[in-house]
Amino acid sequence: MVCPRGSVTVRARGASDDKGPMLIPIKVAEAFFAVAGALPLNVKCLFEGEEEISSPSLESFIESNKTLLAADVVLSADGAMWRIDEPSLTVGSRGITGLELTLTAASKDLHSGRHGGAVANPLHAMAQLIASLHDEEGRVAVPGFYDGVRDLTPDERAEIAALPFDDRTYLAQVGAPATFGEPGYSTLERQWTRPTLEVNGMWGGYQGPGQKTVIPSEAHAKVSCRLVPDQEPDTTLRAVARHLESHVPPGTRLSVTPGDHGARAYRIPADHFGLRAASAALSAVYGKAPAVVRMGGTVPISELFKRHMGLETVFFSFSTADEDFHAPNEFFRVHRLHEGLEAWARYWTTLGERRA
């Protein structure tokens, strides 16, 4: 198929996140064995299929297999480049935590004519409770939420501001009328370096055809937080839960269920040898140095290897952020496959020479 830019694409769930990028190092290894009879360095492959649910089984696996997993650096085929026209290296990712909450009032749905005005409506109460999580300007209103969050240095802000990014172009891409979020920060700063609290879903009551005039007995919502360095998932989750518990609307009861698993944020040191080698490989393929960017999403493997084995992770992916990850029309550009093959081959060769 052909995408709007004219590139030949493969369209399928997971084509870009992360089957296409993961295929690249496999084919590079195959090519080295076919041509040279060996790889230019020692490689251990770990295929981990729980990343989308925060990798709940990975931590215990790493702790139990440190000798088996011993290495100099972790190379991840996940992470995505920032834009199709801008080679980039991702040097950090945000963490994540979340919860589900339920508000109940009466023990069953009630007729709104018979009982309206006499008991609390959980849907009204949920809207009120969710609204309490932010102030009018978009700053998270949970006490303690920003405790320990590092401020950007002037150099870090200048580095982000120098990237070719325009709010109007971004808004046209996502179809929103205006940007919105924590005051005092640019769009990229909010997406990459600031913590967030987002409502991912709210539901309850009658949702079928026509009208059914009831006061529902319960309402539900899912909330997630993206975390930055020095924020702990469990600590943040407890702060959000305490805020919710202290703002329960009259006439309702609250229950909170934590998410299955959280993950910390990650940042690789700017002078790491694996990052320098990756930059050299991308410069050779694209004819210019890659932009240094960060990731708003979460890849738990990086922080886990850092915490348990002292290993840094280099994100070396050839998908791009506009390829509709997780959507039915997800796609991967075939020319990125060829660029990735060359880059991974150069990358491994450079790392092999360093170890020689």
Distance between the termini: 43 Å
CATH third-tier fold name of the largest domain: Aminopeptidase
The CATH architecture term of the largest domain is 3-Layer(aba) Sandwich
Helical content band? 25-40%
Strand content: 15-25%
User: Mind summarizing the main beta sheet?
Assistant: 4 strands, antiparallel
- CATH class term of the largest domain: Alpha Beta
- Topology as a string of helices (H) and strands (E): EHHHEEEEHHHHHEEEHEEHEHEEH
Structural class, by secondary structure, is alpha+beta
| Number of discrete domains | 2
Radius of gyration: 23 Å
What low-confidence regions span 5 or more consecutive residues with pLDDT below 50?
Answer: none
Overall strand count? 13
Mean pLDDT: 93
**Helical segment count:** 12
CATH superfamily of the largest domain: Zn peptidases
Detailed description of the structure:
- The protein is of the alpha+beta class.
- The chain has two domains: 9-93 and 265-355, Aminopeptidase; 97-149 and 195-258, Alpha-Beta Plaits (2-Layer Sandwich), CATH 3.30.70.
- The protein contains twelve helices and 13 strands.
- The protein has helices at 15-35, 58-64, 66-69, 112-115, 122-131, 154-161, 167-174, 187-193, 233-246, 273-286, 300-309, 334-355, and strands at residues 9-11, 74-76, 88-93, 95-104, 110-111, 196-203, 214-215, 218-227, 253-258, 266-267, 291-295, 313-315, 331-333.
- The strands form five sheets. The chain has a four-stranded antiparallel β-sheet, with helices on one face. It has a three-stranded mixed β-sheet with strand order 10-3-11.
- The chain is elongated and about 80 Å long.
- 33% of the residues are buried.
- The mean pLDDT is 93.
